[in-house]
Design brief:
CATH architecture of the largest domain: Sandwich
CATH class of the largest domain: Mainly Beta
CATH topology of the largest domain: Immunoglobulin-like
Largest sheet: 5 strands, antiparallel
Distance between the termini: 174 Å
Strand content: 25-35%
Shape: rod-shaped
Number of helices: 2
Helix content: 25-40%
Radius of gyration: 54 Å
Length: 230
């Protein structure tokens, strides 16, 4: 029942471990690091693009710099084009405003002219086209004319025809004679001021002018009036 007792060594801090063995946590840490590094190398070799050499890196850098310079150049052109477009837009707006103002001035002027024409003495002969006023002058063998024509039944379609001047006066030989000048094409609405000049026969001195308005040369007479040449 009672055997022999063996002495037991008392170790207050537990059994001492061999100093030659590495701690398990350090082993795991080193193993994980090795596995991670191997995984990175494997991924780089199999799945990622190959690493560039120094020369390839330099070429890539040069290409990037060129692309950046081109981008900056295009940005500058875009900014310049944008400024030109803004200037063009402002000019267009200014021209539109000036055109609007010009139209308003034109409308006011047309109203004034219409009032002046309406105040002119009527044509005694009447007709489809009335010769309301005329002024003639001679200088250097040329007859200058300014004739105001009106029509009451003016529609949206302008009236086209010719104005022919028939002159009575003295020829170069001192004889009374009548001559017709070249017909002048006209196109009129409610009124029209026909201005211009025509050459006279050599030595001819006109005293009076008969203004004939026709629908065409040698056509239907639309209006007529005799005026003196001053």
């Amino acid at each position: 029942m009672f055997g022999t007792f063996k002495p037991v060594a008392f170790e207050p801090y537990g059994r001492r471990r061999s100093r030659r063995l590495m701690p398990r946590w350090l082993v795991l840490l080193l193993t994980g690091a090795a596995i991670g590094a191997g995984g990175v190398v494997l991924v780089q070799q199999r799945y990622l693009p190959p690493r560039l050499s120094a020369e390839e890196s330099e070429k890539l850098r040069d290409s990037f710099d060129k692309a950046e310079n081109e981008r900056l150049h295009l940005k500058g052109e875009l900014d310049s084009t944008t400024k030109r477009l803004e200037v063009a837009f402002n000019d267009k707006k200014k021209l539109a405003d000036e055109l609007s103002a010009s139209r308003e001035s034109g409308e006011r002027l047309q109203q004034v002219v219409s009032s002046v024409v309406a105040s002119l003495p009527p044509d005694p002969r009447g007709g489809d086209v009335e010769v309301r006023a005329a002024r003639f002058s001679v200088e250097g063998g040329v007859l200058a004319y300014d004739v105001v024509l009106t029509r009451d039944r003016a529609g949206n379609t302008p009236l086209t025809g010719v104005m022919q001047l028939m002159l009575t006066g003295t020829s170069a030989r001192g004889l009374d004679t009548t001559t017709s000048l070249k017909p002048v094409a006209i196109s009129m609405g409610a009124y029209e001021s026909v201005r211009g000049s025509l050459p006279l026969p050599e030595g001819f001195k006109p005293r009076q002018t008969t203004v004939n308005v026709l629908d065409r040369a040698d056509g239907k007479l639309l209006g007529k009036r005799v005026m003196y040449v001053k």
